[in-house]
Design goal:
The structure holds two protein chains of two kinds.
Chain A lengths: L1 H24 L6 H9 L13 H9 L13 H11 L10 E4 L19 H8 L14 H5 L5 E3 L5 E3 L9 H5 L5 E4 L1 H5 L11 H5 L6 H9 L3 H9 L5 H7 L10 H4 L6 H15 L14 E5 L3 H12 L3 E5 L8 H4 L8 H12 L4 E3 L10 H6 L4 E4 L5 E2 L12 E3 H9 L9 E5 L3 H12 L4 E5 L11 H9 L3 E3 L2 E8 L5 E14 L5 E5 L5 E3 L3 E4 L3 E2 L36 E3 L2 H4 L4 H19 L41 H4 L12 H9 L19
Parallel strand pairs in A: 5-6, 5-8, 6-7, 8-20, 10-18, 11-12, 11-18, 12-13
Antiparallel strand pairs in A: 1-4, 2-3, 9-19, 14-15, 15-16, 15-17
Helix pairs in contact in A: 2-3, 2-4, 10-11, 10-14, 10-25, 11-14, 12-14, 14-25, 15-23, 19-20
Chain B lengths: L1 H13 L10 H6 L4 H33 L5 H23 L1 H7 L2 H5 L3 H12 L4 H29 L11 H16 L6
The chains are: A alpha/beta, B mainly alpha.
């Protein structure tokens, strides 16, 4: 008996001693926090977090790879304690949530009828899928089986529906889905995702330069969920009030309804409708934002690109300072687009909403004059975004261009926008055929001029300005002189403009841009009796900020005078300088600048997080379309009338700068929303009786 | 030499630790959902089982039997195996971090594994010599690995099949395991 006791004690002691000696000899320094964190985890080694066991998860928490709430089993108290150990606040980490990207459900036709198989993975393994759509949801619900938290169910339309409250973001559904339809993402990842060839996208969504999820928000409007619709738009476009007014909606060109019906869905009016709804309600919707990362970004230029970039960077948690050369934020939105198209009060309200996220700004400071790159780097900014725009007007380069009464387009509009008093004559000629020229002409009418001409060297068909803008200008009494090219400005003895001589043109062979080149007709000079001339023939970027002898000198500038950046990442040759908007692309649409700002924000986010700044693979960049999503015919669509745009009568509007286009009324908006076919890659809902909420 | 061959075949196939002796069912079911985890587990088992068998054999022969306290065998083995696994874990972490990371969570899982314990006790029961014990435990471990990997392969395919809802997952897994065991009975009479 005594041997047995001695043996047991001895063996126990020996094991104990051996282990303690071993733990000394084989001691590996480990952050003491790992053990503390591990004690607070569930200890179930379930692998729900994606790590092999709790200790691995604890290590990941301490190395800050994952947030304190990585464990899907422990409650908020433990998360708070873990966060306390890590010295961060509980709840600062962004939760992952599961999202179902395919809204198609049973709408795409089945390619095969399956017998016996009842799992997505099985169907996918054997036949590569069930539906005609190459990426669509198979609808057998592998994700539902995989979810341990009952957060997923197959909805009435045959595709999975996520219960956001129950979802813990464990990622089990994403791992089993053979079609990448279910994705577990943080808000930041979703905000900065660029559309790719492999996403379930409708043609309009592929076309939108800001990549807004159009079918989703139109559907939300149809169901009366206006606030959700605003949130959906804000995931991609922070300037919805402005875009709802001035966007020439390239998306509508690709509207699938327009293939069968006479007119597309009035997407932009719907955007404006919900955006106005929010503004007029007087209550701002809360914009969620990721926890602070402690990184700082300087945004040069407070135009659409700068505001968009700042907005997205702020939402993903970086702190942003905007530096603007003009007295007010908004760039071309404020100084290039006249009051009657985008009222300043509306713009102010919208910009304030963006600034409310916690964005600091400085106005009246110009890069290269008031500060330069060195001072930004010295002030501790980790990255710099250049959204400098294109503010330098091209000149006509004809004699007499410097006489009193000659203006250039953007200069003229920005001075009006800044409420400066400027000399105006009685009769004016605007040279150019773009939107800036039309804006100048319509502004001049409102300033009370007797006669306003637009002189354009090609025909109306070649005019780059929006069709609706040209129509509106014609209604307001602007006279268009086509095939006319200014050749000389005549002056009087006091150096004032006394007339514009132009030469008639005729269209010759098409040039590089595909438009027919205008050729002068000899001896056809005519003099137009005007005393004011506005030249609006295009703009370029003012690159005077490239101060000699500084790093800025190294910044590559293209031969068109824009900042040379990678079109996918918006990164320049200086690794921490990014650029988008007109300053990088040359004059383009507001919505292009917004999309560019977001693209740059994505790259800056990668850069700030120390990851490789590389393009999104197979990104569409709204330049190309998914071929299979472009149809020739859309069977089953009944013709229906598009909601008209309410606008002020001409007599009322030409006397002042009151906004011309009005928002459509709620019943019209709901009716218009039902015209949407809720398209995806292949799916669409042809007309069927629908309930209007 | 022939004896050893017989020993290997009988330990690995005929008396397969899982499918013939029904030991270690817990990791067998638990880690067989994916081939990747199954191979990881198999590797860890070979490693631990061999080490544990040798050490327990030595303890039994040189301590328990000499002192005449064989009734303490079970408790002594538990203590030794548990300490051993802890020791191995520490050793690997310091010296071979790559292997440690590879085995990951499986190493501590084996601490209280009945298959390991079972092999140690069988070695004593069958009164193997040292070399026989070594051979037998490696073979048992390989047998466990073989069964686990086969089973994982089958389960990965069963998932694709049409299984009635109440039988899904572990239930169908146990049925599959039963059929695999039946197949292994076919080895009876081989030696």
């Amino acid at each position: 008996m005594i041997e047995a006791i001695l043996f047991t004690l001895g063996l126990g002691g020996a094991c104990g001693v051996a282990l303690s000696v071993a733990s000394r000899i084989f001691y590996v320094y480990e952050d003491p926090r790992i053990a503390k964190v591990e004690n607070l985890l569930a200890g179930a080694n379930c692998g729900g977090c994606g790590y092999t066991g709790c200790s691995a998860a604890a290590e990941a928490v301490v190395s800050k790879e994952v947030p304190p709430n990585v464990c899907i089993l422990v409650g908020p108290e433990n998360v708070a304690e873990i966060a306390a150990i890590m010295g961060s606040e509980a709840g600062t980490a962004e939760p992952c949530k599961s999202y179902n990207n395919c809204q198609g459900g049973e709408r795409a036709t089945d390619r095969f009828i399956y017998q016996g198989l009842n799992r997505c993975s099985a169907v996918n393994a054997l036949y590569g899928g069930k539906r005609d759509c190459s990426i669509g949801c198979l609808g057998f619900g592998d994700c539902v089986y995989a979810c341990k938290f009952n957060a997923l169910r197959i909805g009435p339309n045959g595709y999975p529906v996520v219960d956001k409250d129950k979802c813990v973001g464990c990622g089990a559904c994403e791992r089993v889905c053979p079609k990448s339809i279910i994705e577990v993402r943080t808000m930041s990842q979703r905000l900065l995702h660029l559309n790719t060839q492999d996403d379930p996208l409708s043609p309009c969504q592929q076309t939108c330069p800001a990549e807004i999820d159009i079918p989703r928000y139109v559907d939300q409007i149809r169901h009366g969920e206006y606030e959700s619709a605003v949130d959906t738009i804000r995931e991609r476009n922070p300037l919805l009030l402005a875009c709802g007014r001035v966007c020439p909606h390239p998306c509508e060109e690709y509207c699938r309804r327009a293939i069968e019906d006479t007119e597309s869905v009035s997407i932009n009016q719907l955007k404006r409708f919900v955006a106005d709804m929010e503004m007029n309600s007087g209550r701002r919707l809360r914009i969620s934002r990721a926890p602070d990362t402690g990184k700082r970004v300087a945004v040069i230029g407070g135009g659409p690109a700068g505001l968009s970039c700042a907005y997205f960077l702020r939402r993903v948690g970086h702190s942003v300072n905007i530096f603007e050369a003009m007295p007010g934020l908004g760039g071309m939105l404020r100084y290039g687009i006249p009051e009657y198209r985008l009222p300043k009060a509306v713009l102010d309200w919208e910009i304030q909403g963006i600034l409310n996220l916690g964005i600091e700004y400085h106005t009246n400071v110009k890069m290269g004059v008031d500060f330069e790159l060195g001072s930004l780097v010295g002030a501790g900014f980790d990255a710099i975004f250049m959204g400098v725009g294109a503010w330098k007007d091209y000149k006509l380069n004809i004699p007499g261009e410097d006489l009193n009464g000659c203006y250039t387009g953007i200069n003229f509009l920005s001075r009006i926008g800044n409420q400066e008093k400027i000399y105006t004559g009685r009769r004016a000629a605007v040279s150019g055929g773009g939107n800036t020229a039309i804006d100048c002409a319509r502004t001049l009418i409102r300033l009370g001029l007797e006669k306003v001409y637009v002189v354009y060297r090609r025909t109306r068909k070649e005019m780059p300005a929006n069709e609706v803008e040209i129509d509106a200008a014609e209604h307001e009494g602007v006279e268009f002189l086509y095939l006319a090219n200014p050749s000389r400005v005549l002056g009087d003895d006091d150096g004032n403009v006394a007339g514009l001589e132009y030469i008639n043109m005729e269209l010759g062979e098409p040039d590089a841009s595909g438009r027919r080149r205008p050729v002068p007709v000899e001896g056809s000079e005519t003099v137009l009796d005007v005393d004011m001339i506005v030249t609006a023939i295009g703009q370029s970027t003012d690159t005077t900020f490239c101060t000699k002898g500084t790093r800025m000198e190294e910044l590559n500038i293209t031969r068109w005078g824009t900042i040379d950046v990678d079109s996918d990442t918006c990164r320049s040759n200086v690794p921490y300088i990014f650029a988008a908007g007109d300053g990088a692309t040359g004059p383009a649409l507001v919505v292009d600048a917004i999309g560019g700002g977001r693209r740059a924000a994505r790259a800056i986010d990668l850069f700030l997080k120390g990851k490789e700044v590389k393009p999104e693979p197979r990104a569409l960049l709204s330049k190309s379309h998914i071929q299979e999503s472009l149809f020739n015919s859309v069977p089953g669509v009944q013709k229906s009338k598009r909601a008209g745009m309410p606008e002020l009568p001409v007599k009322q509007r030409i006397a002042n700068f009151v906004e011309v286009d009005q928002a459509i009324a709620e019943p019209d908006a709901l009716a218009e929303a039902t015209r949407c076919l809720t398209c995806c890659r292949l799916c669409y809902d042809p007309d069927k009786p629908r309930h209007v909420a | 030499m022939g004896d050893y061959l017989v020993l290997i075949v009988s330990s690995m196939l005929i008396n397969n630790i899982t499918l013939a002796q029904y030991l270690g069912i817990c990791p067998f079911i638990g880690t067989s959902k994916k081939m990747e985890t199954a191979t990881g587990m198999a590797g860890a088992v070979v490693f631990v089982m061999t080490l544990a068998a040798i050490i327990t054999w030595c303890i039994d022969t040189y301590l328990l039997k000499t002192l005449g306290i064989e009734f303490l065998r079970t408790i002594a083995f538990i203590l030794v195996i548990a300490s051993l696994v802890q020791f191995v874990e520490m050793f690997l972490k310091k010296s071979i971090p790559a292997l440690y990371a590879g085995l990951g969570i499986f190493l501590p899982l084996i601490t209280t594994n009945c298959a390991v314990m079972g092999v140690c006790l069988i070695n004593i029961q069958e009164e193997y010599k040292f070399l026989e014990a070594l051979t037998a435990s490696i073979s048992y471990a390989l047998g466990f690995g073989l069964a686990l990997i086969l089973f994982a392969g089958v389960r990965e395919r069963v998932v694709l099949g049409r299984v009635p809802r109440p039988l899904q997952d572990t239930s169908i897994g146990l049925v599959t395991a039963g059929m695999l065991a039946l197949a292994f009975i076919g080895f009876k009479g081989l030696v």
